[in-house]
């Protein structure tokens, strides 16, 4: 028997749990023979959902967890107290080596805290960034950090750049990915204190392909493959994608409904529009990995449907097979060696 | 003779200078009897442009300035050295009281530096924020700071909130404007160090209507009338508006051109779409005021056409008649008094 990529999945997390999570898990194991899913959560509920599907029982196990961490709960407290929750139990399965990865659509805070506290960081990694793929006119870019690590230091941003480059090259197949730092102008002397201190460090980093500053305006056009910034700014970028898109599409719809003539036109353009606009939906790329942990933790949108859960699970295969964490360890230990030589 | 609102206009600034600037100035004086424009720049060139128009000569003067500050020039140096530039000369006209306001589509850096160095801050104002109006589904919001004041302190953000409230209430006619601080979650305990320190100060500020945190996602929907943040974040928000809109509209156009059916539909929806999408264009609201100066300085888009120049000039009338600066002075001196009482 070949060795599986073992993925623990939070069956209780997200707006559509457990139905869509269970469905996504089944679709993932049916799509790829290399993956085994451990559905963690309330066993009776999960079993009930599973009745509707056929799948190879060898590839899907249910692990009972009595408790559920709610999105509104303070994450640190929840992780500490709810030892029998799906998130905590699944995180320990990754820590203990039973699983290679964990996928959750549940509380972002709890996933971020649990990742650091339970799964733990790779030695030398200062902070594990949450790194979603964002749609661009050219394809996708990796934006990091979008997590809860606010007030980052320059050395952290350099690590984000290295880890992001490994991910884009090995998982997404982008050769020599272009790394940009989010700035308020293209010139080197522009920016806030953090950017000004980080810029020369990135410039002198031989392991990455640093192309300089990227203005927010140019991100949706695909100005860089790996976009580095501290988490507050990353969060604003990610949320502006959602906010501007949704407001604008709302306007487009209103415009189309405003006259009889435009209503007729709308009927004709609708199918074509739907296809192209789908490529600009931030949620379709499945999960955002939390990079730099001893194992893989993937956070998918709270509103994830089965297809995103499935994609998030399948994403774990490339992560393991491409030995992303070994490559990250290598990058980070190069840093240690450089420090020793100085 | 009634007293004019005297506005100095940088005839040489922006991508479409001098033609569109001169045209906009003429349109402004023809639209409103209360305004007098001083077109500052190379006199022969301006006179040549003016030949095409008719206007009340009483309302429009030309002031010669030999030099031009280019967008690419380092602003501090440019302001110091080019004493005979349109920007420096016009700024001195405001400082000396010859003019009430200055409008420029030229170098943002030079306008920001000149505003602080030449026109000067109102006593007690720590930093003058650049405050553009941004389109929302409900109308417009004022976003401040979008200037070059990176790494702001909490007390500065409180002043931004007060000055922004005065502007929205008195110039835009929004009663009791809702003030929000940009944050990465709605809860009070979320945010970076700056936001966490600023939040309680805003909460305890009786002069403003503070509604708490605003997530970037909710800005385009019109979640607050006055949106406070430090300049790096403000710049990212403003640029994401542009970037996401332009990428998305590009996708919409591509979608419409993708099939024969959709092409026919596109012809029908186009006129209606154009009208609604116009309301989501950040450039149409004319200029962004630089608040808190001894006079009004308005920066309009580098790509401004006559209509934006005209709107920027007319905006100065409300600013003067509503005595915005007197109101700002009052707000800031309340602060001094509060400090004395503590």
Automatic annotation (TrEMBL), chains A, B:
Protein name: Phosphate acyltransferase
Similarity comment text for this entry: Belongs to the PlsX family.
Species in which this protein is naturally found: Waltera intestinalis
Regions crossing the membrane: none
Entry EC no(s): 2.3.1.274
InterPro entries given in the database record: FA_synthesis, Phospholipid_synth_PlsX-like
Record gene name: plsX
UniProt xrefs under HAMAP family: PlsX
One GO CC term on file: cytoplasm
Quaternary state and interactors: Homodimer. Probably interacts with PlsY.
Function according to Swiss-Prot or TrEMBL: Catalyzes the reversible formation of acyl-phosphate (acyl-PO(4)) from acyl-[acyl-carrier-protein] (acyl-ACP). This enzyme utilizes acyl-ACP as fatty acyl donor, but not acyl-CoA.
Pathway it works in: Lipid metabolism; phospholipid metabolism
UniProt catalytic activity: a fatty acyl-[ACP] + phosphate = an acyl phosphate + holo-[ACP]
Protein location: Cytoplasm
GO annotation terms (biological process): fatty acid biosynthetic process; phospholipid biosynthetic process
A molecular-function term among this protein's GO annotations: phosphate:acyl-[acyl carrier protein] acyltransferase activity
Keyword Transferase set for record: yes
Entry keywords, A to Z: Acyltransferase, Cytoplasm, Lipid biosynthesis, Lipid metabolism, Phospholipid biosynthesis, Phospholipid metabolism, Transferase
Pfam families: FA_synthesis
């Amino acid at each position: 028997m070949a060795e599986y990529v073992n993925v623990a999945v939070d069956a209780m997390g997200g707006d559509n749990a457990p139905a869509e999570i269970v469905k996504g898990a089944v679709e993932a194991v049916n799509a790829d023979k290399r993956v085994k899913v451990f559905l963690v959560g309330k066993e009776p509920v999960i079993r009930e959902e599973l009745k509707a599907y056929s799948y190879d029982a060898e590839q899907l196990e249910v692990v009972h967890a009595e408790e559920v961490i709610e999105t509104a709960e303070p994450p640190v407290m929840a992780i500490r107290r709810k030892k029998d929750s799906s998130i905590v139990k699944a995180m320990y399965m990754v820590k203990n080596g039973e699983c290679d990865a964990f996928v959750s659509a549940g509380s972002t805070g709890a996933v971020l805290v649990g990742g650091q506290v339970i799964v733990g960081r790779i030695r030398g990694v200062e902070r594990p960034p949450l790194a979603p793929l964002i749609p661009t006119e050219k394809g996708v870019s990796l934006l990091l950090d979008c997590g809860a690590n606010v007030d980052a230091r320059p050395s952290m941003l350099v690590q984000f750049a290295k880890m992001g480059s490994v991910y884009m090259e090995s998982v997404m197949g982008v050769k020599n990915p272009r790394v940009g730092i989010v700035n308020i102008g293209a010139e080197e002397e522009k920016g806030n204190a953090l950017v000004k201190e980080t810029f020369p460090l990135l410039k002198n980093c031989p392991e990455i392909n640093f192309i300089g500053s990227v203005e927010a305006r140019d991100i949706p056009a695909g100005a860089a493959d790996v976009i580095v910034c501290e988490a507050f700014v990353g969060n604003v970028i990610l949320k502006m994608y959602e906010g501007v898109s949704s407001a604008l599409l709302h306007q487009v719809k209103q415009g189309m409904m405003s006259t009889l003539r435009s209503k007729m036109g709308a009927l004709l353009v609708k199918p074509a529009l739907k296809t192209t606009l789908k490529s600009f939906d931030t949620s379709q790329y499945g999960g955002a990995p939390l990079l730099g942990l001893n194992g893989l933790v993937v956070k998918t949108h709270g509103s994830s449907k089965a297809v995103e859960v499935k994609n998030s699970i399948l994403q774990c295969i490339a992560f393991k097979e491409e030995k992303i964490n070994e490559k990250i360890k290598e990058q980070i230990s190069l840093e240690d060696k450089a420090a020793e030589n100085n």
